[in-house]
């Protein structure tokens, strides 16, 4: 009789141990962020990486994974994008300082603004001299690493490109900071001051 009770107790203990092991399975815990990683190339970044960019990501509000996916899905589709352009020119002797501000608003909620600062000379040459960037959403932070500028031999426009990142503070069993790569591409036509940019998320 004691042997039967001992066997039942052992089976119960084994069952509890099995449940506990399943709950701590790292594969199970990582399934939720796997969607962001697989779909958008997201990755979890450490405090040191956050601090290196001086982004103050701790100020971001924590959002659910479903909210993060909804935002990224809207940004990727950007079916309702509205663009604004403002070109300001300030002549100074043989050169003209240009400020080219482009704004793209997605889904009436997320406005991304890029201002390119350039110097244009009388011979038509154009030189890049810095940028400013801004995102209107308080749920994400947007970080750009700078721009490359080149002449398009076909259109004679100036094309620019930048690798940037969107950061989110996501709740997934614990708080995680997710980094999502975004490639920025655009152009500037010096003949009619037309400019635009788009991004690949």
Record keyword descriptors for this entry.
alpha+beta; seven-stranded mixed beta sheet; single chain; 201 residues
What does the model show?
The chain is α+β, with helices and mostly antiparallel strands and 201 residues long. The protein is 28% helix and 48% strand. The protein has helices spanning 2-23, 26-40, 47-52, 65-77; strands spanning 43-45, 63-64, 82-92, 95-106, 110-121, 126-135, 141-144, 148-151, 158-172, 174-189, 194-200. The strands form two sheets. Strands 1, 2, 7, 8, 9, 10 and 11 form a seven-stranded mixed beta sheet that branches. Strands 3-4-5-6 form a four-stranded antiparallel beta sheet, with no helix packed on it. Helix 2 (26-40) packs parallel to helix 4 (65-77). It is elongated and about 60 Å long. Residues 2-31 have low confidence and may be disordered.
Span between termini: 66 Å
Estimate the helix proportion, in percent.
Answer: 25-40%
What composes the largest sheet?
A: 7 strands, mixed
Which parts are unreliable, with pLDDT below 50 for 5 consecutive residues or more? 2-31
Q: What integer value in Å does the Rg equal?
A: 25 Å
SS field, number of helical segments: 4
H-E string: HHEHEHEEEEEEEEE
What is the number of E strands? Answer: 11
Strand content: over 45%
Judging from the principal axes of the Cα atoms, what is the shape? elongated
Structural class: alpha+beta
Mean pLDDT: 81
């Amino acid at each position: 009789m004691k042997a039967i009770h001992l066997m039942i107790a052992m089976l119960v203990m084994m069952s509890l141990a099995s449940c506990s092991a399943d709950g701590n399975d790292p594969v199970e815990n990582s399934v939720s962020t796997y969607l962001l990683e697989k779909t958008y190339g997201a990755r979890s970044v450490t405090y040191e990486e956050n601090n290196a960019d001086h982004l103050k990501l701790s100020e971001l509000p924590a959002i659910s994974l479903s909210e993060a996916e909804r935002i990224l899905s809207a940004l990727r589709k950007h079916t309702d994008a509205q663009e604004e352009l403002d070109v300001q020119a300030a002549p100074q002797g043989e050169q003209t300082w240009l400020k080219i501000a482009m704004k793209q608003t997605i889904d009436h909620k997320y406005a991304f603004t890029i201002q390119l600062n350039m110097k244009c000379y009388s011979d038509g040459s154009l030189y890049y001299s810095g940028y400013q960037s801004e995102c209107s959403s308080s749920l994400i932070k947007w970080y750009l690493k700078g721009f490359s500028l080149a002449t398009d031999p076909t259109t004679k426009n100036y094309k620019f490109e930048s690798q940037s990142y969107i950061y989110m503070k996501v709740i997934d069993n614990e708080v995680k900071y997710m980094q999502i790569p975004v490639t920025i591409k655009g152009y500037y036509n010096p003949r009619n001051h037309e400019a635009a940019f788009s991004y690949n998320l």
